[in-house]
Amino acid sequence: MARRDSAELNIVVRLSMVVVGLALNGVGIGALIQAGLGLGAWDVLHQGLSDHTGLSFGVVVILVTVAALIPWWPLRERPGVGTILNVFIAGIVIDWVLDWTSSAHALWLRISLMIAGVAIFALGQGMYLAPRLGAGAREGLMTGINRKFGISIRLSRFLIEASVLVLGIILGGSIGLGTVVFTVAIGPSVQLAMRICGYRERTTGDEVTGPVAAGAPGR
């Protein structure tokens, strides 16, 4: 009985980490949007689509996440409960943050929001990924391509995110200092957050979940 209670408590803790982590992802992205100094590759696309469709940023995030799950079936990726929660929570929180805040104008505040946004997003990613309850839709694309076609995680990540960024720029998404800071800082920051949250890598090399997740936000 004690062992069962411990297992139930463990899954409750892990699920709570996933939910809080995804919510922090949404807060971090909201801060980056309000900073107005540029977004990460996927969010450049989300913003461009939002501007062209009239849909809210959060709704676009949800729809793109669903679209990113479609190739999982031919790539033989398996979603987990974290994958399903990933579809909705961040997008809902992003819209909530944008509804209750406004764009920053003072440069010092914009830079502060940018730095805080990256830090909060990284902490959220660490909390989401550490419990191992399912990869994010975008992360699953990269690991699926790695297994299906033998393309390294790093190369598949680069090809996908470069394509997403170019499309987002074409659609008018926001790029700038924040894009550079996010791209450079997010990998090491997420790896640190994952370690703080108790994540331990199972293997080494290109197929390690830790570097994959750290290099590619699992939203």
From TrEMBL:
- Keyword set, alphabetical order: Membrane, Transmembrane, Transmembrane helix
A Pfam cross-reference name: DUF6198
Q: Which residues cross the membrane?
A: 12-33, 53-73, 80-98, 104-123, 158-186
Keyword Transport part of the UniProt annotation: no
Is Membrane one of the keywords? yes
This protein's name: Membrane protein
Q: Please report the organism this UniProt entry assigns to the protein.
A: Actinoallomurus oryzae
